[in-house]
Structures are given as structure tokens and as C-alpha cells.
Design a protein that fits this description.
The protein is 66% helix and 0% strand.
């Protein structure tokens, strides 16, 4: 968004030149300095910030958690219960430069992602039975968080089966076309085609988690700051 770019440009100019304001930002914790500076720019610059209150806090809470885990495939219900204690306290934490909520969510996400790194290879190591009649809920907004790691694994199994079936279908169609068009082509068995589809899914997830491994705490903190800023309504 253009307004966000202008805001962050103002923040960086302020940091670089120290001429934006006479206010001093002497905290040695860079994260706290950024929170202090952003809220200051919003309040003193050409912006009309929304009231930083419990309602504001609840919106930041919802958008941050949803942004980190939109498909509800990392956090457990117990995590959300623990996070929700801070639902109306984020505004107070922003004002006091308290990073308790962010640190809790960030550290828990790292743990859950490590758990998932063990789950998906195990799931994809087992053939999917596409003759089995089962369903999956993809209305993630209304979906509940799972309560146990066993339930989390089952959620991943269904989601991976759902996402892998398209690769399996493509493999089957490609096999049919090659059998028809390429003389001497040896048809692949359904077992081989299904296995190839699972390998494709695993490769995709391996690449995704390689990417997330390169992300640092500061990258997630930037998401948190952006979530805060987006709750303001520039005039």
C-alpha cells in the first residue's frame, strides 16, 4: 500500500537523519526502538492514528495470528488459548515497548514448524488411497484449531492428500498421452504414478521449509510491525 510505503520511508529517514524530531530513542533493543519510532511517526506525522485501545489490540491480534497460520496447520488450540490472554493487552504492550506477546507467538511458531518438519515427510512416505471416501474442510476461517499433535498430523494428511491428487491426476493423464503418442513407451503403474505425485509434494514442501529456515526473527518482527501499522487509518 502506498500509505505504508510512505510511513516506513518516514521511519527510515528519521532513523538515518535524526532530524525528524528532537525525541531521543535511546533504548538498546532495536525492536523496541522501532515500535517507539513507528508509533511516534504515526502520532506526530501526517497521520491520524486510530485509538490504540482494546479494540485496536484485538484486531492486531487476529490479523497477526491469521497471517502467520492462515490454514491453521501449525498452532494448536492450547497455543491459541495461551495467546488469547494478550488479545486486549497488545495496545498496552505497544505503549510500553513490551515484546512479550510477539516473543511468545514467534517462539511457539518456530517450535510448531519444527514439529511439522517431522510430520509431512512421514505422511508423504505412505501411499494415499484415493478410493477411500473422505472429505476435507477448506473453509479455514471457520475451522477449529486441532488439540493434539495426532490431530495435527491427520490435518496435514488430509491437506496433503488433497493437494497431491492434482499431481497424481496430471501424472495419469501424461502417462496416457505418452502411451498413445510415443512408440515403445512403457506405461507406468498407478502405484508408480501415485508415488511420483507424493515426491512432487515433498519436494515442494522441502523447498518451502528451506526458505523458512532462512527467515530470521527480524523478518517475523517486520510482519508484526506491518500488522500494527495497517490498523491505523491515515487521513
Amino acid at each position: 500500500k502506498k500509505n505504508l510505503k510512505v510511513l516506513f520511508l518516514a521511519v527510515f529517514v528519521a532513523v538515518a537523519s535524526c532530524s525528524f524530531t528532537t525525541k531521543e530513542f535511546n533504548d538498546t533493543d532495536k525492536d523496541k526502538v522501532l515500535i517507539d519510532l513507528i508509533t511516534y511517526v504515526l502520532q506526530k506525522g501526517h497521520y491520524s492514528p486510530a485509538d490504540i485501545n482494546d479494540e485496536f489490540s484485538a484486531e492486531v491480534y487476529k490479523d497477526f495470528i491469521t497471517g502467520l497460520d492462515p490454514l491453521k496447520r501449525y498452532f494448536l488450540a492450547s497455543d491459541i488459548e495461551e495467546f488469547s490472554k494478550y488479545k486486549t493487552e497488545i495496545d498496552d504492550q505497544i505503549k510500553s515497548k513490551d515484546l512479550t506477546f510477539f516473543n511468545l507467538v514467534y517462539n511457539r511458531l518456530q517450535k510448531r514448524m519444527e514439529d511439522v518438519k517431522k510430520i509431512y515427510p512421514e505422511v508423504l512416505n505412505t501411499p494415499f488411497d484415493y478410493t477411500e471416501d473422505e472429505s476435507i474442510n477448506v473453509d479455514y476461517d471457520d475451522m477449529d484449531y486441532v488439540s493434539t499433535n495426532k490431530e495435527l498430523k491427520e490435518r496435514w494428511r488430509k491437506q496433503l492428500k488433497f493437494s497431491t491428487i492434482s499431481s497424481y491426476y496430471d501424472n495419469v493423464e501424461q502417462n496416457k498421452n505418452k502411451l498413445k503418442d510415443e512408440e515403445g513407451y512403457t506405461s507406468k503403474s498407478e502405484k508408480e504414478l501415485e508415488e511420483k505425485a507424493r515426491k512432487t509434494s515433498k519436494t515442494s514442501l522441502d523447498e518451502y521449509f528451506d526458505f523458512t529456515t532462512d527467515l530470521e526473527r527480524k523478518d517475523y518482527f517486520a510482519i508484526f510491525l506491518t500488522t500494527i501499522v495497517e490498523e491505523f487509518d491515515p487521513h
